[in-house]
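Narrative of activities, Objective 1.

The group set out to show that a structural description can be obtained from nothing but a protein's sequence at a throughput compatible with the screening campaign. Below is one input-output pair from the validation batch, recorded exactly as produced.
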Amino acid sequence: MTSRLEPYEITPQQYNVLRILRGARPEGLPTLSIGERLIEEMPGMTRLLDRLEAKGLVQRKRCEHDRRQVLCYLTEPGERLLAALDPVVSAGEERLSSAITVSEAETLVALLEKVRCGFRGTNSTSEEQ
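Output recorded for this entry:
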């Protein structure tokens, strides 16, 4: 993934944030909500958003009804970057997924869910094996 994103001068973590914000359109998301949705925990969320904002890919605004909260939005340049990256990332995912069967993919997803729950200290939603 890193090598596919490198020509676009974006990291996998930044890409994930952009995708999360695309899914939150048009309302935007508070910074903490973005962190909760990330695949891996990011202690430097503010710095990551600073970098994306400096590139013009995200915009942050104070929430009108709660001035303590900052909402993050995907900008038009961020939209265009994701549109350019969609086929690049999909091609990589297709290449990886062609190496395993549907059954193996389902097993992998279940195992990854167990690992994710273990890191968060919660019980797995799938059957204990």
